[in-house]
Write a structure and sequence with these properties.
mainly alpha, 4Fe-4S, metal ion binding, [Fe-S]-binding protein, iron-sulfur
Length: about 100
């Protein structure tokens, strides 16, 4: 019940009232859950990254938000996790969504 959509789709389709309602509710829930502790929000969705990290600030939501690929990069660079190449895989692909690569650099 505490987990709600960020409202990205509502905003993109022009429903600012629904976006505002979702944003206010989510900001309140996240502030209650985090308390005074400085914590990061990790998301798998580039649209949620954009909404939580950049658009909620206009309503008082000040959160550090990162994409899960950023977390994986940090953890591998710090040697906290390691990635080993699979013997039977020659190539992998990664879809770089516009909201990840272009809007959130």
């Amino acid at each position: 019940e505490m987990e709600r959509c960020t409202g990205d789709a509502a905003r993109r389709s022009g429903n600012e009232a629904l976006f505002y309602e979702l944003a206010q509710s989510n900001i309140e829930t996240l502030n209650e859950a985090m308390g005074e502790r400085k914590r990061r929000i990790v998301t798998t969705c580039p649209h949620c990254l954009q909404t939580l990290g950049k658009e909620y600030s206009q309503y008082g939501g000040a959160f550090e938000v990162i994409h899960h690929t950023q977390l994986l990069s940090e953890l591998t660079a710090a040697k906290k996790i390691s990635v080993q190449r699979a013997q039977d895989v020659d190539m992998i692909t990664f879809h770089d969504p516009c909201y990840l690569g272009r809007h959130n650099g």
